[in-house]
Amino acid sequence: MINVGKSDSELINISGMNDKELQNFMQHNAISLKAGEARKAAKLIGRNPTLTELHIFNIQWSEHSSYKSSRNTLKMLPTKAPNVILGPVEDSGIVELGEINNERYGIVVSHESHNHPSQVVPYEGAATGIGGILRDVLCMGAKIIATADPLRFGNSFGKNKNKVKYIANEVINGIAGYGNAVGIPNLAGDIYLNESFDDNCLVNVVCLGLVKEKDIIHSYAPKNSEGYDIIIVGKATDNSGFGGAAFASLILDEEARESNRGAVQVPDPFLKNVIIRATYRVFEEAKKDNVKLGFKDMGAGGIMCSTSELCSDADYGAFIDLDKVHVSMDIPPFMIINSETQERFTWISPPSFTQRILEIYNEEFELPNIAENARASVIGKVTKEQNYVVTHKGKIVCNVPIKAITAGIRYDREAKKPNRNFKEPMIKEKNNYNEILLKVLSNPSVASKAKCFSHYDKNVMGNAIIESGQADAGLIKAAEGSKYGIALSVDNNPKYGRIDPYWGAANAVAESMRNVAAIGAIPSALTDCLNFGNPEKPEAFYDFKESVRGIADAAGKINYYKTKNPVPVISGNVSFYNESKSGNAIDPSPIIACIGVMKDYSKAITMKLKKANSTLFLAGERKDELGGSAYYEIFNQIGKNVPQIDFEREKGRIYAVIECISNGLLLSCHDISDGGMAVAIAEMILGGNADGIIGADINFNYPYLRNDKILFCESPGFFFEVEDKNIKKVQSIFKKYNLLIHKLGKTTNKKSLTIINSNKKIIDLSIDELRKAWTSGFKEALE
Amino acid sequence: MQKPSIAVIYFPGNNCEEETLRAVIAAGMRGKILNWNTKENLGSYDGFVIPGGWAYEDRIRAGVIAAKDPVMGIIRQEAEKGKPVLGICNGAQVLVETGIIPGLKDKVEMALAPNKNPFVSGYYNAWVYIKNTANKKNAFNSLFKKDEILHLPVAHGEGRFVTKDKALIKQLIKNKQIIFQYCTKEGKIENKFPINPNGSMLNIAAISNKKGNVIAIMPHPERAIWERQYQDFKKSDKKMNTIKIFESIKNYILEK
Description:
The complex is a heterodimer of chains A (783) and B (256).
Chain A (H helix, E strand, L loop, with lengths): L18 H10 L6 H11 L5 H10 L2 H4 L4 H4 L9 E3 L6 E8 L2 E11 L1 H6 L1 H17 L4 E11 L7 H22 L3 E8 L8 E11 L16 E6 L9 H4 L9 H4 L8 H20 L5 E4 L4 H11 L4 E5 L11 H6 L5 E6 L1 H14 L2 H4 L4 E9 L3 E6 L2 E7 H6 L26 H8 L8 H4 L10 E3 L7 E4 L7 E7 L2 H6 L1 H18 L3 E10 L6 H20 L11 E7 L13 E10 L16 E5 L10 H5 L12 H16 L5 E5 L3 H11 L8 E6 L6 H6 L4 E6 L4 H10 L5 E7 L3 E6 L2 E7 H16 L1
Parallel strand pairs in A: 4-5, 9-12, 17-18, 22-25
Antiparallel strand pairs in A: 1-2, 2-3, 3-6, 4-6, 7-10, 7-11, 8-10, 9-11, 12-13, 14-15, 15-16, 16-19, 17-19, 20-23, 20-24, 21-23, 22-24, 25-26
Chain B lengths: L4 E6 L6 H10 L3 E6 L11 E4 L13 H4 L2 H11 L4 E4 L1 H9 L12 E3 L10 E9 L16 E8 L3 E3 L3 H9 L3 E6 L20 E5 L5 E4 L25 H13 L1
Parallel strand pairs in B: 1-2, 1-3, 3-4, 4-11
Antiparallel strand pairs in B: 5-8, 6-7, 6-9, 9-10, 10-11
């Protein structure tokens, strides 16, 4: 229920209401501010607010927009390093790629979540998640080059299986429907399914762009821009997605599902496709004329957030005339200014260049003919006076010090260590593990995700070198006329976080770095999307803090290749309230993306075995660390001992693998993670398309650990294939880092996998059997 | 003689124009991406490519609206003069919807129907094999040996060549208009998934007009020009045989 009865410029007499009356009034108007927060807003304005002003503070002080609970904790993260061009302050972070023709290039990275919308309206929710992140990257002046999608769904065999499958399939369709149409290759992604996501799926998205350092456009008004035009471009504003930021900051209430649907935006990838191309044209023209512009995505908080931040961050104010906004329906001013209608951007332009921008969008690319009333419109001016002034039908509906809108608020939330009573299970040893390995391979979280990836366009733009699913990380050619490759991996095993949020997060960071290293790229930057429950609950907040500490430790201690610098966290997002009304919260899920740089992509390798009679090596000790493992899941157990990272050794292994690959010494390489060593070697045999024909005979003597623990423990490590002539060189590189590697067996022309420990055969399976298990598990989970 | 110049037409919603232009240039031609509403004189170009994507959002049916766009009228005239026109994926759908392909009667004779794919319904992206089965040289295959195999991606939801007109099928075979057919890695034409990725009649991957200067091809040769783009291959910058589609166009223009 939205109260539109109040006159738009009328002041709401909140000082005359008691807390209960105030709370009722706000609830009636779909404002989720607390009474104290509303009073604080009034104090900042210096008088009672208008309804529009209250709505503005509602959005700006939502968790989604203000990071009010998380900001203090996030200070722990290492965000500075010599290769950081732009840290996590604007819409995207930027990390150095390197120099091409004597010009420094940056990789633009953004990492967001669209969890709540995807749970309510999965197709549109997932699609607009892609739509939003493309804008975040484009608005830095970058060329958009790739996306990736870490997804978490509920248990598709559990009590909510029908809903889980519906959501999973629709989310995948939504990602494909949007990303494919715009034409951005999908480069990486992972999917886990467990019951903690039954009521709250996670739909995270990562987007990469490429920009010359000197061509970066910032999300703030340029210097000396008083009197510059404020131009909005894109779809006509409507009531869709009104209150989206506030919605993302609430616990999902299944009963309110219908009324929440309106908070989800409507995607239009077709319009976006054209806007992106028109925007590239604006970039070109601005460069040609040497014009400095400000440019920002319109996401959460719509026109208000975009225009106020652009001006405030440059110490200016703004004047906005809502009558100039191109709308597609008659809606009240607080909705025009706050609606999250998709496919829109804001430009700050000197009046001399404004006409060129309007021509490009409205005439050259004919936006008004592409979508009903889509266009570029001048809606206001940058002002010297630092107020945010909005008029509607000649009346002032908002006049607030601009910094009051953009400064946000902060809370120091209470953190309390929750009781965690995890125990190691008692599982009987078996004579052989054939059946168990097939079960682990067909676990939907482990199995091939081809059913998902083959729905995404992976090779549009023609730059993909290693496509999604072919190796531990994806790889694309960065730019024409250069051998630079950009690698990307996304990771987090949610069950680790359930047992131990610190090690869950540290493992996610380490695994993402291993994945990038396993193809030969140098882990160069990280982004984090921190998905958690209700931060107002001290136990949930404790998990959040522990996770951030885990990321900070791993990023700081597994240093950037052969330096003392951290691998910096350059962008991220916090998604709280991933909890249902019944209190079912998701596993603490700090999802990490690692961006890798490769100077020469021709050195890159994949996980698939390349030839018979080469030698297979293991790097990384096997340990009794099966907590949260895919193996325990078969027995409906979770365990206690999650893998712990020895940062020094982890770093050494990553460096050694990169060094080996850059010297052309490895034929194939795979990180050991979900399903442990047995799954790693099975996947190397199968390859990304499950069409491998090289088998493996593994033979070792390791009496110190049970066979099931050797095969399936997920302790960090690598498995790799080496030609005999290169063995000594590989060993000496690892020795430099004080690491031993273990010769475990040979690749063969036999179409099988055998594993023998101390003369006892514990695995003996044909490639066909492996293939059937690995290719069916995920497919069946979604049917 | 000057390098031939190719216009790559961007309809709103297309998304393969850049890599298509790159393939044109890699084959030793000049090229430019032109918007659907361009004011340039298209007659000054030696050939045309209509790239993949979702022209006009595939409203009504893939390719229908673009087929009625004035720019297609000009391209039809240029094609009638013998200039080569290559339609890839959505571009192929546009050419079929204009009737230029197969172009035997003055109307739309075929359709590109939704994929029949037992693995993924709707949009499907994967690498496939096709071979040059045409017993006749045209503007796009002249540099290939008979039965030469190409490896390249498909990326579409509606790529199944169909017609109910049995006489038309006979005509296509007689006229040698079926240029590329889906096959196994070894070149065997088997009408089953995933060898035939969309259930296309006779495993058809590409059809030309009778004269052989216009072709509609569903898979994406422009995404398979260099070895690095191939999965499970070395990551080198060596050009692969797929470039010969574009080089054949160049030769055709130069020899004309």
